[in-house]
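User: Can you predict the 3D structure for this chain?
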Amino acid sequence: MDPNDIWRTAKLIVDQHGIFAPQECRRRADEFAAAGDTDAQAVWEAIRLAAAELLENGPPQDIPGLPS
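Assistant: Here is the predicted structure, written as structure tokens:
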């Protein structure tokens, strides 16, 4: 997944789940891990890290299409 897509997905998850966004991403990553899909697990882990960053520091300025 493109890094910009990771950030945009993280923004959507934060908008939907607020401060619980990282936990939701972890839940999804765990589901994919249990199913043996390590690629999807890695994507959701990257989204989790981006969501945590968004919650702590706000959106990066250099991501196209990522509203603040």
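The two ends are 21 Å apart (CA to CA). Residues 3-57 form one domain.
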